[in-house]
Task: inverse folding
């Protein structure tokens, strides 16, 4: 019976059978030790009979005063011939345990099984950390979404989800495997991410062969999940147009990525420009009249009155993305003004 339980756990959880036997032995030992703390005990596993037995170490004496720790010479010789007074002997422990001790055994076994399973999950997924994985939505909750990866539940927190997306049970989903925890976690050891710049960068590498082959390099990504992303790319092959290659003919390459992100907009720029030109490009769709680089980390930008709202974007997101993308503090000035009245730093 015990071997059957172990086999089922091995098949279901992919756990090591020897480790499981040790867990069960440790659990039983904890139960007996709780009720008999002064006894020297051990638990043995008999593969032939599929049973665990409990033994206690006793000292052989001529007169027994402590039944838990001592055994008479006569009884000892009946168990093992040739033993003498003063020697120690392991014998079957026949004292009973109660409900409280059994509960203790269950707690120990459950805790150790979690630790073993946690290590198994960590070993299976640690090399996939930082890459895109595919799973199936298992359940959506207020705090996030549970996703089944192979036979393991992963957690996509609400904070790392695309705000405009709905996660429906049974639907496939791709995400960045952001973190693989070594220890057991109640909401899962595997933490997923669909909202970060890293997810988009990995998605571009996965979907565009030239990026995967390093013919095109992603220099920087700034993202507001569900709204817009800005990406700077450069080519390592002079015969390749990095922007055109990423977008594809008629948008054929970028459209599947936009669909994956739920219609989020992506602006792609080429790295082969001066810093002031990059600042102007990063503020698109606004038309910029002039850019003055005050230093490597600060830029003053002039725009017309009718371009101001476009440059700033909804809730300041466009200028914020441009600033983050280039790591430049942008001071926006309406043409005709001497000083700027809005500035954002990354």
Result:
């Amino acid at each position: 019976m015990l071997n059957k339980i172990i086999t089922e756990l091995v098949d279901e959880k992919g756990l090591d059978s020897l480790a499981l036997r040790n867990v069960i032995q440790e659990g039983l030992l904890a139960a007996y030790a709780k009720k008999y703390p002064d006894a020297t005990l051990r638990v043995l596993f008999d593969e032939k009979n599929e049973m665990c037995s409990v033994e206690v170490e006793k000292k052989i004496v001529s007169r027994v005063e402590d039944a838990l720790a001592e055994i008479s010479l006569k009884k000892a010789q009946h168990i093992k011939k040739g033993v003498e007074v003063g020697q120690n002997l392991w014998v079957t422990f026949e004292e009973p345990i109660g409900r409280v001790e059994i509960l203790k055994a269950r707690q120990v076994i459950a805790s150790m099984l979690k630790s073993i399973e946690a290590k198994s999950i960590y070993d299976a997924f640690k090399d996939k950390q930082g890459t895109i994985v595919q799973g199936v939505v298992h359940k959506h909750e207020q705090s996030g979404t549970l996703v089944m990866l192979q036979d393991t539940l992963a957690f996509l927190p609400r904070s790392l989800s695309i705000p405009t997306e709905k996660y429906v049970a049974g639907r496939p989903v791709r995400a960045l495997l952001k973190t693989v925890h070594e220890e057991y976690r109640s909401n899962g050891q595997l933490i997923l991410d669909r909202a970060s710049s890293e997810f988009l960068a990995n998605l571009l590498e996965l979907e565009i062969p030239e990026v995967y082959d390093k013919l095109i390099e992603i220099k920087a990504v700034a993202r507001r999940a569900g709204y817009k992303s800005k990406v700077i790319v450069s080519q390592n092959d002079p015969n390749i147009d990095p922007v055109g290659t990423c977008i594809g003919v008629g948008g054929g390459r970028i459209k599947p990525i936009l669909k994956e992100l739920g219609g989020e907009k992506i602006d792609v720029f080429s790295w082969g420009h001066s810093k002031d030109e990059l600042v102007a490009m990063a503020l698109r769709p606004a038309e910029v009249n002039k850019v003055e680089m005050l230093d490597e980390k600060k830029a003053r930008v002039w725009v017309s009155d009718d371009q101001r709202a476009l440059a700033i974007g909804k809730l300041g997101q466009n200028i914020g993305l441009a600033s983050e993308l280039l790591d430049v503090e942008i001071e926006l000035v309406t043409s005709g003004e001497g000083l700027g009245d809005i500035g954002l730093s990354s």
